[in-house]
Structures are given as C-alpha cells and as structure tokens.
Predict the structure.
Amino acid sequence: MRKLLLAALFLTLTLCSACGARTASPGDAAEEDLTVIGMCQVGAESDWRVADSESMKTVFTEENGYRLLFEDARQKQENQISAIRKFIQQRVDYIVLMPISESGWESVLQEAKEAGIPVILVDRMVDAADESLYAAHVGSDFLREGAMAAQWMEGVFPDERENVGIIHIHGTLGSTAQLGRTAALEAALEKHENWELLARLDGDFTQAKTYEVMTEYLSSLPGRGNIDVVYCENDNIAFGAIQALEEQGYVCGRDGARVITFDATRGALTQCLEGRIALAVECNPLLGPLVEEVIQTMEAGGTPEKHRYVEEQVFTAEDLTEALIEAREY
Ligand code: GYE
C-alpha cells in the first residue's frame, strides 16, 4: 500500500513537472519500486542470532528490490513493541518479527492488522489464539529438536537401572525455543525414572550468563557432582557451561559430562569434532530466503503457508569432518 502511495506521488510529481514543479529523478523512481520491510530482531545474544540477522540482510537488499528497516531490540520485548509501532507509523509494506517470548503480542499485532500491514513471524512463535494476527510463521520445530536429543540420550544410556545425572541449562524463559526444548526434556525425564535432574539453571541463551550460573552451581556442590549430561539449550550456553566445567576440573566428553547443544553453528561443530560436545542438534538460522518466499507469494496475490518448519538434523563427532565444518554457512 505504501508502494501505491509512492506511485501516486511519483505520478503527481511527473505531471507537475510541466507546470514547473520538481521532477522525480530516475533515482527516486527506482526507490519507489522497493518493498519496505520493517524487521524487528531479538538482539545479538548468540551466534545463531547473528547468523540469522546476516541471512536477512543478505536477502533484503536494494538490489533485490527491498528497503530493510532493521531494529535490534537488545533482548527487550518493550523495544520490539515500540519498533512495531514505529513501523506502523512509517507505513511499511511488511513487518517481520522475531518475537523474544510468546506472550504479550495481541494488542500490537491487532494495531498492525488494523493498519493493513501483514506481519511475518520468524524463528519463534506468539501464543495469540487469533491466527489472523499474522500472515505466516517460518522457523524451527523446537519440540522435535528436543525429542531428537532425548532419543540420542536413550541410545547412550540404555540401562534403566543406571542413574543418569542431568543438568539442564535453559534459554530465555517463555521463548518458543526454550519452551519446546524444555518440554522435550521434561517428557523424557517423566519417561525414565533413572534420569535425575540435578539442577535447572537459567542461561538466557548467552555464554556469559551461563558461565556465571554454572560456576556458581558447581562451586556450591559439597564434592564432585555425578554429572552425566549437560543439556544446553543453545551453543552459547554450551560454550559457557564447558568453560565453567573445565575450569573446575570436570572432563567434557565420552569419559565425563556429555554436553548436548542446540543450533550446531560452526564453533559448536568444531567442539563436537574435538569430542568436547557430544551431540549438536541443528537449528537452521538461514531463514532469509524462506521469508522472502512468503513475501513474494503475497506480492503475487497468493496466501502463504501458515507455518513452515525447516529441516534439521543431529551431529555427533562421527558425522563430522573439518571440510564439512569449513563448508558450513554458519
Ligand atoms: O537456538 C539461540 C537463539 O530462537 C532458535 O535463539 C532461536 C534460539 C537459538 O538465541 O541460539
């Protein structure tokens, strides 16, 4: 709709050139064809997030016909909400939102709907019951990712009589990635009586926070903990946990704590190949091309698929080579 307004403006300027008004330059004309995207990213808390932002910036360029207005919310929902309100005022063509957490979106999404601006959700979801508040969602199936990790654990610890001590370090509370990955672990803990949850810590998806809480936890133990698994809800949590564990004399690997991670960015795969990370569950951040497909479908007057999940796999050291890691895009 913004494009229509701009086209009308262009026409007026061109017509007025005959009566001495300013004529739109070819530069302006090119500008008018751009589809304006207001994008609201969570922040830059993890390697995954940085790769995700990069993917968006690579796709939504002027050469490809877009003007990208990119807002980094620095991990705060209120910043995301004000960015959306600003985009509505600016009358962008589309709003792309990576919601930090699931709740609290109804009113601002309603405002976007009333302004006639389609909202595309990326990566995480919102818990709004009214699906008409967003045009489409593109992201990962986090419950499935967690279930793949639990299935791997069942293979590694097949003896139901043996105690398995697990530390769970979760990501940002209330985010879809946290909710899904946590729910899968909880279901597995229910199923296996011999799996013992030693501690649940909040790593907020960052290395620094995890290092801090893990160090505090390990230091509080009276002796050496019997830690078989550290279930880390993203790579940066895994990096912080490994740092704290090793500093306190723990071994990470087959002969010690088996670190499970989600994302499988290059840094984590390298540690997996080296044996420090036991399992890396892939979470694909390269969502830019999929978001563009949604926009192209809508530009052509079509209706995009409501939910689109990306294909993902798991990696252990046996699946990896240096060449494979080198060739990986993130
Ligand atoms: O796993 C984590 C990030 O929502 C999939 O958020 C995303 C998660 C990802 O900060 O690294």
